[in-house]
Amino acid sequence: MIISLNRRYVFVHIHKCAGTSIEVALAKSLRHNDIVLGSTKSGEKYQEFFKRAIGLNKHSTALEARGFLGDAMYAKFYKFAFVRHPIDRLHSLYSYALKLAHDAELSDDEQRIFNAHGHWPDRPPFRYKAVAAALESSSFSDFALHPLTWSDAGAQPQWQSVCDTGGKLIVDYVGKVETIEQDFAQVCEKLEVSVPLEVRNSSTEKKSALELTPLALATVHERFARDFELFGYGA
User: How far apart are CA 191 and CA 8, in angstroms?
Assistant: First the structure.
């Protein structure tokens, strides 16, 4: 998340929607007293401080940002976010979870405990529900049907990040990862900044619906029904 008090805008960083790329790009135009949570070196460094001080973090919602700023000030800010096709977003989470697990090997003791009891170690990344679900799944379809997947913050519906409790959109603009270059250019024009956008933290680049079994596909559509409707995504 970015809250720019100088340029008066709020960027809502939704999981697996190019938020890191966007925050790194916009950070070049930030000034003193602007707040960036996560993604950049300083954003990651001070994320825990801001979480304790103001109750916000990297993936805080628009509603939480409004609570921090107050209704009157929030109304004066330009609020925007980027979303992604729900199936591709879930596949990105799956790929990212596998990468995290691959990069963090179990120790011999942890492997023995897992073999004996089936318990993942209580440390990152194994404590993350998406990582455990990915490791326990033999395919993307299995991941989409795994109960732990839907308990992970990265698999929560996107509308919850940009709407109020009644489901009403409370941001001014929603760009799409699929058209990120032109949509980000539109954001930059509104903010009166000119910054290059580089794709970062990318973990998947292809359509993923064909990898899902009919049951898994139906599950994803049920879980993300509001996302498909609100953001105009097809099956």
Answer: 9
Chain CA centroid to CA 119, Å = 27
How far the first Cα of the chain sits from its last, in Å, is 29
The pLDDT tens digits for 53-62 are 888 999 999 9
Distance (Å, whole) CA 170 – CA 183 = 18
CB atoms within 10 A of CB 31: 9
Domain residue extents for the chain: 2-84+158-203, 85-156+204-235
Q: Are 123 and 215 in contact, with CB atoms under 8 Å apart?
A: no
The model's pTM? 0.90
What is the rounded average pLDDT of the residues 66-79?
97
Q: Which helix (H) or strand (E) holds 25?
A: helix 19-27
Q: pLDDT per residue over 202-234, tens digit each?
A: 544 455 778 899 999 999 999 999 999 999 998
